[in-house]
């Protein structure tokens, strides 16, 4: 169960005549500093705190409850789409404040919602504990930068920090294409135009093509979802723009393979050559619990596109060498997950147990820690 104080807040709000709406649960999510709220018929509301899904001490929701909550948050323009597809992604900002990314769906015939709490304004990169090379990559004048990792690994937070770094450093035009908009940015040195799929534009591909006529310097594409989006992003990065985007991949080598696999075999050689020339870097990340119990810290693999990495991208027989090139590329700011984990264990930021669970190769991690005299 979640902490009693927060549970009491939920009960009090419900008993105070607020009605069975989604708002009290969103307030509880914020007070618990959770990341996600899960609402499903037949279960009490649950919140994800530091990676763990925990149940609130609140009434079990009924199908009628979740239908009312869906009706409360679903935009009018998405109701027809949801009725047809039983799926919807959108952003929700309650009158009480806050902003949430919402996925609405049906399970066992009843409505269900997962609502992720997102920031209004970016967290500066310096506060995220990312390697210095990430700040340098964010200021590339042109090319393609990818931030990858599983769902919930903090990709959006990192990208928002990069956009904020550009916004604070360069006088330029930044165009973001998101589904939905998660972090709201204010203009600083840069001018930022934020476009939301289905609200401001039809889809990623359409928005990317239109962006070429909007005099952008930096383009953020929320996610590489299909061949059309990848092709448009590569084209933009080859024509003098700096493009940032995300993929759900676990490391740099898999990221390259995933992009290539979007295309049919007869196009893959050309795509490899284009990617080898346009790519500036790949930042892969995972979240690991902090040893002091104060949340989670980010662990990053960073691949910078040096000449040797570009050769490995262009040659399918050498792509698997990227993993070793990352480990050997410390001079360029590169690091593997396990190298970053060694540093975090050394500094007491994460425990050996949690590091082993997050490591790409737990055995090699332990060998390196023993070599350094950090464990026996």
Task: List the keywords.
T2SS/T4SS_dom, 7-stranded mixed β-sheet, PilT/PilU, disordered N terminus, Type IV pilus twitching motility protein PilT, 376 residues, alpha/beta, P-loop_NTPase, 13 strands, 16 helices
How would you describe this structure to a colleague?
Mean pLDDT is 91; it is low at 1-18. The strands form 2 sheets. This protein has a 7-stranded mixed beta sheet with strand order 9-8-10-11-7-12-13, with helices on both faces. Strands 3-2-1-6-5-4 form a 6-stranded antiparallel beta sheet. The chain is globular, with a radius of gyration of 22 Å. With 376 residues, it is an alpha/beta fold. It has helices at 4-18, 23-31, 63-73, 79-85, 125-128, 132-138, 155-169, 204-211, 227-238, 252-261, 265-278, 307-314, 322-328, 337-346, 352-358, 362-371, and strands spanning 36-40, 46-49, 52-55, 87-92, 99-107, 110-118, 143-148, 173-178, 191-196, 218-221, 242-247, 279-289, 296-304. This is Type IV pilus twitching motility protein PilT. Residues 212-226 form the Bacterial type II secretion system protein E domain. It holds the Pfam family T2SSE. Belongs to the GSP E family. It comes from Kineococcus glutinatus.
Condensed summary:
It is built from 16 helices and 13 strands. It is α/β, with parallel strands linked by helices. It has a seven-stranded mixed beta sheet with strand order 9-8-10-11-7-12-13, sandwiched between helices.
